[in-house]
Specification:
Blueprint lengths: L24 H7 L9 H7 L9 H23 L5 E2 L6 E2 L7 E5 H6 L5 H6 L4 E5 L5 E5 L2 E2 L6 E3 L2 E2 L11 E8 L3 H4 L6 E7 L7 E9 L3 E13 L2 E12 L8 E12 L5 E14 L36 E18 L2 E18 L2 E3 L21 E4 L2 E22 L2 E21 L14 E2 L16 E23 L2 E20 L9 E23 L2 E12 L17 E13 L5 E18 L6 E19 L4 E17 L17 E10 L4 E10 L15 E11 L4 E8 L7 E4 L4 E3 L4 E9 L1
Parallel strand pairs: 4-35, 7-10
Antiparallel strand pairs: 1-2, 3-9, 4-5, 5-6, 7-8, 9-10, 11-12, 11-37, 12-13, 13-14, 14-15, 15-16, 16-17, 17-20, 18-19, 19-22, 20-21, 21-23, 23-24, 24-25, 25-26, 26-27, 27-28, 28-29, 29-30, 30-31, 31-32, 32-33, 33-34, 34-37, 35-36
């Protein structure tokens, strides 16, 4: 019923919230010198030279063999749906040696399905759902537990907690660790962690440019340039520019990106990297659409979605989701031997967000035609919608420094695979509040619209708004961890690991009178947390093709998950969680196909809930989920390739609840019983390759279990690729072939639809 959105010519500037990265450099430089006192000195003495000397030729040759193997792993990810290694556990590990579930989405799968954002990638794995949060952020859920709000999104193993629309233009792969992750990463989610692995320079000259055109005037240009600059050095650059009137779900796209990494000492004892990343988003924003009932008197349980096209947009043309993400990084790898290395990294980040969104709701009955409340029974082009305001203006700055040792050696008659390290984090967040009309600010008035109106009608001057500092949060954290995988028998390995974290947080709330901007009253809260996290497991590997594990791990979430404290939660201890898992990793005889399965139970032992009568936050809650996961990836034949990911969650329950929370004995929100994806391609001829896949989620309730569930859905995608020459290919994608209407991100007051049918054609040139 609604046409695609058109962009506004005006783009009001954000308040001055940026700060200089240079201010953080001294602290980052100090953090780069972390040591590892927790390692046994005699082990290092056995493996490392007594003095700093030039490596012998044979040793350099051996180290370069490691580089060649790494190159082969990278090529596999670019040319295959199968991955055999992961870096989500700090050091590089074989997936068969990880006693926990890991799903890897390779660059090949991202290219095949045109997955341009991290959210798109995660939708193509199992167990993921999305909360359409009040602040406009898309809060990722894994197994029903929050990920992003707890900071469990990482880049190359370093925390990436800011809210911004992440793009995949410089990604080599995305890894999903399932289950408790605090032993590796510190404070974090019960559900798991997501690690974005960026592209690294290689000792070759190789370049690729991809140009994609598609529905809604979509145009995307991505360049990937790898330049060998010396015998052991290389530079890799990535560039991106994307524009579209509509992303298929009501939001326009306008973003650019630039990333680069310089790497020197490749294959030598000491390797150094310098990196830079910048992403500039000036996208539109579909905050969401209201739920509706069949009739005004229908039961709450019959609530459903508006019957409009998925690409419909009813916000203002002046709405936008504008932001910048900028990071600079330094890395150093010292190789004591071919099997022992110390990897030290420092990254400084600066993130701005300037969100201006409209909360679209069904207007009151008095504003509807005939003065009757809107429902499906009388829904028409004349149905009236109101447009409220949701603002999110904030700045996040952080410094992360970590050093990780990984080594394989023999000691006390058994083989060891040790991971150990230390990390430091400094995080600062500043949130700005809009000045109200009573305080002397200008608040633009938004007119109502109708279902049949032009998409994106109406405009207000967002530059008229003024802002003040609303709250500020500063946290400092340090952590130390060690893990040992011991081969106690030819087929058996035992895993033990522990981590200690110390976190301090200071939160200041700045309040002003209702009708004035002064005096400013500052209320301060402090958080202090000291926690241990544990991990243990047993791995049984009867052959090179089979690996089975039984493991358990713990995690904790602080009260300052979302960088906010209050009188109610500042003194509340962290939530505690535990994950138990029985799983296996199987490989075909030729090594070209792998399967993973896991039976798991994840329990949040103490869950924060707010008592509405006392406004106190207590750890009175408890919930658990239990289910089965299956992943498949690789080549069934030289021409037939498959990737599949499925999760079955038959058990999900609120074990202990309190008033105001989700009801005791009910299924938690945002936990679909079934979720999964399948993708397969077939090489018909040397020049023609075709593919297709499905994405599916069963029904799930919005947050707070409001009494209804979003309907289940299945969407289908198609792909065809023609190899014009060795260096040039043309690929066509059709996603959501049937233009299925479904709720992608859920909230109790609204939902954000999934993208409708999109047709895109990509030309790829290698040189």
């Amino acid at each position: 019923m609604a046409r695609r959105r058109s962009r506004s010519a005006a783009a009001p500037a954000a308040p001055a919230t940026r700060s200089s990265l240079a201010q953080a450099l001294p602290l980052g430089a100090l953090a780069a010198g972390f040591g590892l006192a927790c390692l046994a000195p005699q082990v290092l003495a056995q493996q490392a030279p007594a003095a700093a000397t030039e490596p012998a030729a044979a040793e350099v040759s051996t180290l370069r063999k490691i580089t060649v193997k790494a190159k082969k792993d990278e090529e596999r990810g670019k040319d295959s749906l199968q991955a055999t290694t992961t870096t989500i556990g700090k050091g590089k590990q074989e997936l068969r040696d990880v006693a926990q579930s890991v799903t890897v989405v390779t660059e090949k799968l991202m290219d095949d399905r045109n997955l341009d954002t991290m959210k798109d990638v995660l939708k193509n794995t199992a167990g993921i759902s999305f909360l359409a949060a009040e602040g406009g952020e898309e809060d990722i859920r894994l197994r029903g537990f929050p990920l992003q709000s707890t900071g469990d999104v990482f880049v190359d193993g370093m925390r990436d907690p800011a809210f911004y629309d992440r793009d995949t233009f410089f990604h080599d792969r995305i890894e999903v660790l399932r289950g408790s992750a605090s032993m590796m990463f510190g404070r974090g989610s019960t559900g798991g962690a997501v690690n974005q692995v960026t592209k690294t320079p290689r000792l070759i000259n190789e370049n690729q440019v991809d140009v994609t055109v598609g529905s809604h005037d979509y145009l995307r240009v991505v360049g990937d340039f790898n330049i060998r600059t010396g015998d052991s050095s290389a530079l890799r650059l990535g560039v991106m520019d994307t524009k579209a009137d509509n992303n298929g779900a009501g939001s326009s796209i306008n973003k650019t990106g630039l990333a680069g990494t310089y790497r020197t000492g490749i294959g030598e004892k000491d390797e150094f990297t310098l990196s830079f990343y910048h992403l500039d988003n000036d996208n539109g924003m579909n905050y969401g659409l209201p739920w509706i009932r069949p009739t005004a008197t229908s039961a709450v349980s019959t609530t459903t979605m508006l019957p409009v096209d998925p690409s419909a947009y009813y916000g203002m043309t002046s709405d936008r989701n504008q932001g910048e993400a900028t990071t600079v990084g330094f890395g150093h790898v010292h190789r004591f031997s071919p099997t022992m290395e110390l990897n030290t990294k420092v990254r400084i980040g600066d993130y701005d967000r300037n969100q201006r969104a409209s909360t679209v709701r069904l207007a009151a009955a008095t504003l509807q035609p005939g003065g009757v409340a809107a429902s499906l029974a009388n829904f028409s082009n004349a149905t009236v919608l109101t447009r409220g305001t949701q603002l999110k203006v904030q700045n996040v700055r952080n410094i992360y420094a970590q050093t990780d040792f990984s080594g394989k050696f023999e000691g006390l008659g058994v083989k060891h695979e040790v991971l150990a390290g230390a990390d430091y984090a400094l995080e600062k967040k500043k949130v700005y509040a809009a000045v109200t009309a009573a305080q002397g600010g200008v608040v633009p008035t938004k007119a109502t619209t109708t279902v049949g109106a032009d998409s994106g009608s109406g405009w207000v001057d967002e530059s008229l708004r003024s802002f003040r500092t609303g709250n500020e949060y500063v946290s400092r954290g340090v952590g130390f961890y060690a893990q040992d995988l011991v081969q106690v028998a030819p087929m058996w390995k035992v895993l033990v690991g522990a981590r200690y974290d110390r976190l301090d947080g200071d939160y200041d709330i700045h309040t002003v009178p209702t009708a004035s901007l002064s005096p400013v009253t500052t209320t301060s809260y402090k958080m202090e947390v000291s926690e241990w996290s544990k991990r243990a497991g047993v791995i049984f590997q009867p052959s090179e093709r089979m690996s089975f594990h039984l493991s358990g791990a713990t995690s904790f979430n602080t009260s300052g998950d979302a960088y906010s404290l209050s009188a109610g939660n500042a003194a509340v201890p962290p939530e505690q969680s535990i994950n138990a898992e029985l799983g296996g990793y199987l490989t075909s005889a030729d090594g070209n196909f792998t399967g993973r399965f896991a039976i798991f139970r994840t329990t949040k032992l103490h869950e924060r809930n707010t008592d509405p009568d006392s406004a106190l936050v207590t750890l009175s809650g408890k919930r658990h989920v239990a289910g089965l996961e299956i992943d498949l990836s690789g080549r069934l034949t030289p021409s037939w390739e498959v990737f599949g990911s499925y999760m079955w969650l038959p058990v999900a329950n609120i074990d202990v609840g309190v008033a105001g929370s989700e009801g005791q004995g009910t299924r938690p929100s945002l936990t679909p019983k079934h979720s999964g994806t399948i993708w397969t391609t077939y090489q018909l001829t040397p020049k023609v390759r075709v593919g297709g896949g499905l994405n599916a989620r069963s029904s799930q309730t919005p947050n707070r279990n409001p009494g209804w569930a979003a309907p289940k859905f299945i969407t289908g995608d198609l792909m065809a690729e023609y190899k014009v020459s060795e260096d040039f290919t043309v690929k066509a994608n059709v996603s959501n072939v049937t233009n299925k209407l479904y709720a992608d991100s859920l909230y109790s007051g609204h939902y954000v639809p999934g993208a409708g049918r999109l047709i895109q054609v990509t030309g790829s040139l290698k040189f």
